[in-house]
Design brief:
The protein is mainly beta. It folds into 3 domains: 332 residues, 7 Propeller (Methylamine Dehydrogenase, Chain H); 87 residues, Immunoglobulins (Immunoglobulin-like, Sandwich), CATH 2.60.40.10; 50 residues, no CATH class. A hairpin with an 8-residue loop joins strand 14 and strand 15. It is elongated, with a radius of gyration of 36 Å. The protein starts with a strand and ends in an 8-residue tail after the last strand. Keywords: DNA-binding, Membrane, Signal, Transmembrane, Transmembrane helix. GO terms for molecular function: DNA binding.
Length: 484
């Protein structure tokens, strides 16, 4: 299918190869009726999406992350009767958990069967109703469920049918996240400020639960995420004013950043450098926490975005961002860009050199840089923000390195490999010899027009003879010995 240019970016339909992509290029994967949550397998090979079924059927779908092919689908029933709220893959990748607000239940499927396109019978867990969010214990032992009505739940992955542990909170919850060490779970306390915030539930070594500290964060907290690197809890506040709050538990100072959207679920990179907020009002808010003063930007792509999931590499840097777009019935996939340099250039002195790069996937700005010291320091080239750079082939610039940096609100900057400029000097022409004056009886001291060596024309101690060709005349010279 052909790419479609949008005001907010460029849409690539699933399966279309990307090459020399323009700014804000992403993949739009067709889903069902109002996709509402997405989660990936631990190996990053597949992702699962639940569709709420507005005006149609509620279902669960599985996709290949390379081809974006739909591999399987489980239909729950009409959206009016089934209201799925969250999907969570277990830490070992063997189970897929789906929670429902109505009916009040959780279904657990074997992952391998879903990927194979089968329709396995799920394990059915019934509860008090109002399930709204799920998260996994990174150690792999538990799945936690948040409910708008108490209690909150801790289920066992080894035996989903075993009686769960429960704990009551002062107020019901909208979202849940777990510490990477498994020692605590964080539930948003969905209430107006100042009662709105994050309730910590401490988890003992044996898995037993107890109430911990409460941290007020804002008005009507919705989503919550835990970032391991900075030991930070993030909470999206959906009331007034809309914002994203962060704090170090327990009891750390709360930092709140205003965001211009209706926030829903939130996710972030484990190193804490970046956070993402799904916006019901459309798009994603991306916040960069890599500096002391966080900066944020709204990427206005997608309609009724309720869920966001970030996939990272071994170093914890974001490589992909998945977002559900309920209004368009799609899963939006943003991939960190790649920069492929065209190679170094060798030109003659005075001739222009043209450097090129090919940038694929999601980027928003390009900047060419130059280094005159072998890559130790780099300086931005003024007015150079396209995939082509033309420079003058000045001899003094030979040895300079050029590169491109691709940036966006969603990902860390991507720096292209440097390209070398080599300028070859213009050859200096040999001087044209002047005619050699000949004075009879005098020694020849200059180069005759023949190019012959004058030493060959003069005998040092005896007689020497040479020929000077001047027009058609032939002149015989006899060197004279000077008496000493």
């Amino acid at each position: 299918m052909a790419a479609v240019a949008l005001s907010a970016g460029v849409l690539l339909m699933a399966g279309e190869p990307a090459a020399a992509d323009p700014p804000e290029t992403y993949d739009a994967v067709p889903a069902g009726d109002y996709p509402i949550d997405v989660d990936t397998t631990p190996d990053g090979a597949h992702f699962f999406v639940i569709d709420r079924g507005d005006g149609g059927e509620a279902d669960l779908r599985v996709y290949d992350t390379t081809t974006f092919d739909e591999l399987g689908r489980i239909v729950f029933g009409p959206g009016a009767s089934f209201n799925p709220t969250a999907v969570q893959v277990s830490p070992d990748g063997s189970q897929v958990w789906v929670s429902f607000y109505n009916p009040g239940q959780i279904l657990v499927y074997p992952t391998a069967d879903l990927i194979a396109g089968a329709s396995p019978a799920p394990v059915v867990i019934t509860g008090g109703g109002g399930f709204v969010d799920l998260t996994d214990d990174p150690a792999g032992g538990y799945i936690y469920a948040a409910t708008l009505f108490n209690p909150q739940y801790q289920f066992f992955t080894a035996d989903p049918t075993a009686p769960p542990r429960t704990i009551g909170l002062p107020i019901g919850s909208r979202g849940v996240a777990a510490r990477s060490d498994g020692g605590a779970v964080y539930f948003t306390q969905f209430a107006a400020a100042p009662a709105g915030g994050v309730q910590t539930v401490d988890v003992a070594a044996d898995g037993s639960l107890s109430l911990g500290a409460f941290t007020a964060t804002g008005d009507l907290p919705w989503g919550v995420a835990y970032l391991e690197g900075p030991d930070r809890v993030l909470s999206s506040n959906s009331g007034s004013p809309t914002s994203l709050s962060g704090f170090t538990p327990p009891g750390g100072a709360v930092d709140t950043q205003p965001i211009a959207c209706g926030p829903r679920l939130v996710d972030g990179t484990p190193d804490g450098a970046r956070a993402y907020v799904a916006c019901l009002t459309g798009g994603l808010v991306a916040l960069d926490y890599s500096s002391d003063a966080p900066t944020g930007a709204l990427v206005q792509i997608g309609d009724n975005v309720e869920s966001v999931e970030v996939a990272v590499d071994a170093d914890g840097a974001a490589q992909r961002v998945y977002a559900t777009s309920g209004g368009s019935g799609e899963v939006l996939v943003f991939t960190r860009p790649t920069v492929t340099p065209g190679g170094g250039q060798t030109v003659a002195e005075g001739a222009p050199a043209t450097f090129t790069v090919v940038v694929d996937d999601f980027w928003q700005q390009l900047q060419w840089q130059v280094s005159a010291d072998g890559g130790t320091t780099w300086t931005d080239v003024p007015d150079a923000q396209t995939e082509t750079l033309r420079v003058d082939g000045a001899l003094a610039a030979s040895g300079s390195l050029y590169r491109v940096v691709a940036t966006s609100a969603l990902f860390d900057p991507v720096v292209g490999a440097p390209m070398l400029l080599t300028v070859t000097a213009t050859p200096t022409p040999s001087p044209t010899p002047e005619p050699c004056p000949v004075v009879p009886g005098e020694q020849v001291t200059c180069l005759p027009a023949t190019g012959a060596d004058p030493a060959a024309l003069v005998g040092g101690a005896g007689l020497g003879a040479g020929l000077l060709v001047a027009g058609l005349a032939v002149i015989t010279l006899r060197a004279r010995r000077r008496a000493l």
